[in-house]
C-alpha cells in the first residue's frame, strides 16, 4: 500500500509517499523560515500564499519519482492549524483524490506528531505516555492500544511559542527554539532561577505565559545580562517543567514508556534531561529523529495507515478545521 501525504498546517509545505508503513519513497519539505524571519513569526496570509506556490513544485517532483497510478490513498492534515494554510493542503488533496480516483484520508496534525515515533521505532507498541511539545501545542497524552486520553495541556502559551517569544525578547532569530538551544550551550543554566510554572501542581497542565513575562521583566532590570546566560536559564526552566510533569503522569498512569514528539522534542537539553531521568528511574524514553520532530508529511502518512486500517476514510466534503481537537482519534 502506498499513501501520498500532504502537510500544510503552519509554515512548512510538505509532501511524502510512504509504502507499507516503513518504506519512504518521497519526503519533501519546503521551509518558509526565511520568508517569516523578517516578521519574527508566521504571518498566516503569507504562509498560505507560499503553500500555494510550493505545492505545485513538490507534487511535480513527487510524481517524477513515484507513478501517480501506483498510489492507493491521499492523506492530508485538516487541522489543527492556520485555516488558510490548511485549505491549500486540503484543496490539493481533493484534486488528487478526484484526478486519480483514490480515497482521501483526513489526518489530525497532533495524531501525526505521535505517529512520527513509528518512523524510527516501527515495532513500538502502546501503552505509553506522550509529551507533545511544539510551537502550537503542549500536551501530555496517554496512548493505549485503542484509545488516546489527554491528561494535561497548556493553559496559555505552548512551549514552542514561549521559546519563540523569548527569542524575540532576546533579539535572536526565528524560529526561536533552535536559536535558544544553540546559544544556551554557551550559557549558565543556573545563572538565574526563573519561575517553574505549575511544576508542583498535582495536575498535568502547563502554563508558560508568565515565564515569558518574567524574562522580559528580568531583562528590564538587568539590561547588561549575558544573552547566553538568560537563554540557558529560561531553557532550564521550561525543561524542568516538561520533564517533571511527564514523568509524574507516567508514574501515576503506571506506564513505563514515554514518547517525546513535536518540534520542541529536538531541543538538546530536553533530550538529555529526559534520557538521564529515564535511566535513573528505570523508564524507557523515545524520541523521533530530529528530521521528523518538526512538521513533515511522513508523519501524516504514517498516521493515515492506522486510520485506513480502522476504516476512517474521508470524502470530498472534508474541510479545514483550524481548532480541531482529538475528536477523530479518541
Features of this protein?
Nucleotidyltransferase, domain 5, five-stranded mixed sheet, 11 helices, 330 residues, 2 domains
Overall description:
With 330 residues, the chain is of the alpha/beta class. It has 11 helices and 10 strands. The protein has helices at 33-37, 44-65, 83-100, 109-120, 159-169, 176-184, 209-221, 227-253, 268-281, 290-293, 297-309, and strands at residues 2-7, 12-19, 23-31, 73-79, 104-108, 128-133, 138-144, 147-153, 257-261, 284-286. It is globular and about 60 Å long. The model has no long low-confidence stretch (mean pLDDT 94).
Structural category is alpha/beta
Number of helical regions: 11
Helicity, as a percent range: 40-55%
Mean pLDDT comes to 94
Residue windows where pLDDT falls under 50 for at least 5 positions: none
**Separation, N- and C-terminal Cα atoms:** 25 Å
CATH class of the largest domain: Alpha Beta
CATH topology of the largest domain: Nucleotidyltransferase, domain 5
Q: Strand tally, please?
A: 10
Summarize the structure.
By secondary structure, the chain is α/β, with parallel strands linked by helices. It contains 11 helices and 10 strands.
Helix and strand layout, with pairings?
Elements: E1 2-7, E2 12-19, E3 23-31, H1 33-37, H2 44-65, E4 73-79, H3 83-100, E5 104-108, H4 109-120, E6 128-133, E7 138-144, E8 147-153, H5 159-169, H6 176-184, H7 209-221, H8 227-253, E9 257-261, H9 268-281, E10 284-286, H10 290-293, H11 297-309
Parallel strand pairs: 1-4, 4-5, 6-9, 9-10
Antiparallel strand pairs: 1-2, 2-3, 6-7, 7-8
Helix pairs in contact: 2-3, 4-11, 5-6, 5-7, 5-8, 6-8, 8-9
Amino acid at each position: 500500500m502506498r499513501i501520498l501525504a500532504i502537510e500544510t498546517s503552519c509554515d512548512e509545505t510538505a509532501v511524502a509517499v510512504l509504502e507499507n508503513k516503513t518504506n519512504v519513497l518521497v519526503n519533501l519539505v519546503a521551509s518558509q523560515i526565511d520568508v517569516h524571519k523578517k516578521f519574527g513569526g508566521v504571518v498566516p496570509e503569507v504562509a498560505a500564499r507560499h503553500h500555494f506556490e510550493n505545492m505545485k513544485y513538490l507534487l511535480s517532483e513527487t510524481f517524477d519519482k513515484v507513478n501517480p497510478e501506483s498510489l492507493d490513498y491521499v492523506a492530508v492534515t485538516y487541522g489543527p492549524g492556520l485555516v488558510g494554510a490548511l485549505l491549500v493542503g486540503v484543496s490539493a488533496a481533493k484534486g488528487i483524490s478526484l484526478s486519480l480516483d483514490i480515497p482521501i484520508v483526513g489526518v489530525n496534525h497532533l495524531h501525526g506528531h505521535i505517529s512520527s515515533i513509528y518512523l524510527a521505532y516501527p515495532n513500538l507498541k502502546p501503552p505509553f505516555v506522550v509529551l507533545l511539545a511544539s510551537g502550537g501545542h503542549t500536551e501530555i497524552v496517554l496512548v493505549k492500544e485503542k484509545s488516546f486520553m489527554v491528561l494535561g495541556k497548556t493553559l496559555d502559551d505552548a512551549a514552542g511559542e514561549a521559546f519563540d517569544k523569548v527569542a524575540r525578547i532576546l533579539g535572536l532569530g526565528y524560529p526561536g527554539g533552535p536559536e535558544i538551544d544553540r546559544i544556551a550551550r554557551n550559557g549558565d543554566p543556573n545563572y538565574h532561577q526563573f519561575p517553574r510554572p505549575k511544576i508542583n501542581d498535582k495536575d498535568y497542565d502547563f502554563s508558560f505565559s508568565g515565564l515569558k513575562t518574567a524574562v522580559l521583566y528580568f531583562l528590564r532590570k538587568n539590561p547588561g545580562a549575558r544573552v547566553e546566560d538568560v537563554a540557558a536559564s529560561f531553557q532550564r526552566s521550561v525543561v524542568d517543567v516538561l520533564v517533571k510533569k511527564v514523568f509524574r503522569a507516567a508514574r501515576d498512569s503506571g506506564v513505563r514508556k514515554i514518547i517525546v514528539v513535536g518540534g520542541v522534542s529536538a531541543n538538546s537539553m530536553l533530550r538529555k534531561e529526559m534520557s538521564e531521568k529515564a535511566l535513573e528511574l528505570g523508564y524507557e524514553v523515545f524520541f523521533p529523529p530530529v528530521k521528523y520532530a518538526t512538521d513533515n508529511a511522513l508523519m501524516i502518512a504514517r498516521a493515515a495507515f492506522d486510520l485506513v486500517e480502522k476504516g476512517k476514510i474521508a470524502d470530498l466534503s472534508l474541510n479545514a478545521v483550524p481548532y480541531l481537537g482529538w475528536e477523530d482519534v479518541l
